[in-house]
Amino acid sequence: MLPQREFFLASNSPRRRKLLEQLGIEFTVLEDPIEDLIDRAKPPAENVTTLSLKKAMSVTSQVKDGVIIAADTIVVLDGDILEKPKDASDAERMLGRLSGRVHEVYTGFTLLEMPSGRHRSYVERTAVKFRELGRSEIREYVQSGSPLDKAGAYGIQDDFGAVFVERVEGCFYNVVGLPLSKLFISLKQFLR
Fold it and tell me: What does each C-alpha distance from 163 to 65, 87, 129, 160 come to in angstroms?
């Protein structure tokens, strides 16, 4: 399917690891020591591609030969970027804002080949509609601790987070953290 190469994932995200495993790709996880600093003056697509490139570049010293895959995901509501919540009350506030509304999820990913340094960045956008949420179900979900490490304070793959979603327009896997179809096609083209 894909040419034989050594692959490296510049991410600590268990969701991204699981998604990459779904593609049957063997890879090594590398620490991505950069902080996710959003530039609110830039459009969401530019933010996620810039951050994914920075993450890929941050681990190049650990890779002699191979392909680095790095990604970043953000949630956008009414032009406002919803990052990972600071605490439980912030998560409740975010989920309250998302209730009954359509928001966008952007994932940028970068493929970087070593030792050449050749790289390419891509972006995927998905629209997600939440149903109306009750305050008690928001509170119960937040108390589980699950939304505290996720952009927009929810995980579509979570047992509880999944039932908040009424409709998805675009790539479902993009909302989880990696647009699998686009990633696979991009890898095939990149490795020609």
Answer: 43, 22, 11, 6
